[in-house]
Specification:
By secondary structure, this protein is of the alpha/beta class. 36% of the residues lie in helices and 24% in strands. The chain has two domains: 70 residues, membrane protein fhac (Ubiquitin-like (UB roll)); 143 residues, Rossmann fold.
């Protein structure tokens, strides 16, 4: 029988092997500790990040506010932006001096501090101005664009005033506006209606488009009582009476009169269109001839 004999290690060799294995384990443990970072609790990381972000935002907001304030202070105080020129465009009836007095002091103010909206509102309050636009022109100029109202007719109260096509009173009439139609009102505060005034003028213009008035157009309207008006021709030799409540119907009646007149129209002194079912025509020899009544129904 064969036997294999295994030589046992000496005690000193075995001790060295044990120490070597322990050192290897310690080295592996140290490497693991180096690789694994130290952990900070999640709640601490979250609060730190939020605090940092909030601080950053507050700082940026402060910088923006400061820059804005510094820029505004520079633009509103620097003499290089002092207004030295004011120009007006679109004004015909109003002079630049009149507009400047109405608007107030502009020159000498700061271009960026000047209130454009307030200036536009102030200009639009003028009776002659329909609309206004105010703009800055860098570096020292204010430019104003205007749309003026156009005189449409004259209205006589105690004085003669101009009105536009919407019935807005503009100012006292001057000799240059003598060609405009004239509306005679008993008193300014008595039943004055811009809408009715405009309707009266439009009716007058409709009459004047007819060949009947080509050489002697209507140019004056006078109100009588509450609802009656009288149109006068330029030569004051013909009157047309109408009701303010039935202007359209009255005009239609007049067209019927033109088709039915049997004598010279130039001899007519008055045509009354205010009645509902008839038209009264009076010629110049009213003392000798009765008025003619023309039915319209």
């Amino acid at each position: 029988m064969d036997f294999a004999i295994v030589n046992q290690k000496s005690s000193s060799v075995a001790w060295e092997d044990l120490r070597s294995k322990r050192k290897k384990k310690q080295r592996r443990g140290g490497d693991l500790n180096k690789r694994a970072p130290s952990r900070i609790p999640g709640r601490d990381v979250s609060w730190t990040r939020m605090l940092f972000e909030l601080t950053s935002k507050l700082f940026l907001a402060g910088v923006v506010v400061y820059l804005f304030y510094a820029s505004y202070s520079f633009l509103t105080s620097d003499p290089r932006f002092q207004i030295t020129d004011v120009t007006f465009r679109g004004n015909h009836a109003l002079s630049e001096n009149q507009l400047s007095r109405w608007l107030g002091q502009v020159r000498g103010g700061n271009l960026f501090a000047y209130d454009l909206s307030a200036a536009s509102t102030r200009l639009a309050e003028h009776p002659w101005i329909f609309s206004a636009s105010v703009q800055r022109k860098f570096p020292r100029k204010i430019q104003i664009e205007l749309t003026e109202r156009v005189p449409y007719a004259r209205v006589k109260f105690d004085k003669v005033f101009l009105i536009d096509r919407f019935g807005v009173l503009l100012s006292e009439a001057t000799p240059e506006h003598r060609h405009l139609p004239l509306i005679i009102q008993p008193a300014k505060s008595e039943n004055f209606s811009e809408e009715k005034v405009v309707r009266n003028i439009e009716t007058m213009r409709a009459f004047n488009k007819l060949s009947f008035f080509e050489k002697n157009p209507l140019d004056t309207v006078e109100r009588k009582g509450h609802s009656r008006i009288i149109f006068f021709t330029r030569n004051r030799d013909l009157q047309i009476q109408m009701s303010t409540e039935t202007l359209t119907e009255g005009f239609k009646k007049f067209m019927i009169v033109l088709d039915t007149l049997e004598y010279d129209a130039s001899k007519i002194q008055m045509i009354d269109l205010s009645f509902e079912d008839q038209v009264v025509v009076r010629d110049r020899i009213a003392a000798r001839l009765p008025s003619a009544e023309i039915p319209t129904n």
